Amino acid sequence: MKLIYIINSRLPTERAYGIQVAKMCEALAGNSAEVVLLYPKRHNPLRGKDFFSYYGIEKKFEVKELFSIDLLKYRFLNIFSFWLGAASFYLNVFYRLVFKFRAFKYVYTRDFYSAFILRILGKKIFFETHYLPKKVFLFYRYFLKLNNGIIVITKKLKDELVKRGVAGDKILVLADGVDLNQFDIKISREAAREKLGLPLDKKIVLYTGHLYEWKGVSVLLESAKYLPEALFVFVGGKEKSPGYFNPS
Predict the structure, then answer these.
(1) What residues does 12 pair with on adjacent strands?
(2) Which domains does the chain have, with CATH numbers?
(3) Alpha carbon of 129 to those of 110, 152, 166, 173: distances in Å?
């Protein structure tokens, strides 16, 4: 099976979605699929990093960075810069699928717009989504019904899609997972705590991820006062991100 994976985001990235995309491509390639990952060329502080070594995965598939008009750093352009970059990337993807990867019959993506556009090429589209828009407009609902398959991460998402008229037999529930091999470390809990300068005699409540307010980080911090015997540790976040919550 020849499969194109498309994502309209910069890679590699320090954000969690990059790990998920890399691991998905590795897993697909490990199941006898010939996989090519396409993503846009954008300003990236991680430029120059080798994709495979950065994510610690085997080089079982191809990665191709495609030209995209990148004005996202000029924030005053707002939505215009996003759509100009997206349109240039989609055109490049379209060209590649017509002239370079014509034999690739399957497209896997988390990007709604590229999946919709590529339907006209007669590709079999598999769309992965982790959420639904607050307002599922008619165009989006129509598109969901067109897909050959939809992958969601919770049963609730599947139920919501079925309510909106998507056939249940074309929806696959695959919960977000983890590569257990990365946690098969040869170090004791005590040695790990000593290495990180954490106390040996306290229970630790650990949060890892982006420190967005909407993720409830402030609620977790507020709960700390009810558990004085525990140490709350927050790992992650970027100070300049919109909606950033500083637990300190």
Answers:
(1) none
(2) 2-173 (3.40.50.2000), 185-235 (no CATH)
(3) 6, 5, 14, 10
pLDDT confidence band for 123 (50 / 70 / 90): confident
Buried b / exposed e across 96-118, counting CB within 10 Å, b at 16+?
Answer: bbeeebeebebbbbbbbebbbeb
**Cis peptide preceding 133, ω within 30 of 0:** no
174-186 average pLDDT score: 85
For residue 119, what are its two tokens? Answer: 């339907």
Structure tokens at 49: 């990093």
In the chain, % of residues over pLDDT 90: 50
The pLDDT of residue 215 is 80
> In the predicted model, is pLDDT for residue 241 greater than 60?
no
Residue 45: both structure tokens together: 């502080």
Q: Where does the chain show beta strands of DSSP type E?
A: 2-6, 34-40, 62-66, 106-109, 124-129, 149-152, 171-173, 203-208, 230-235
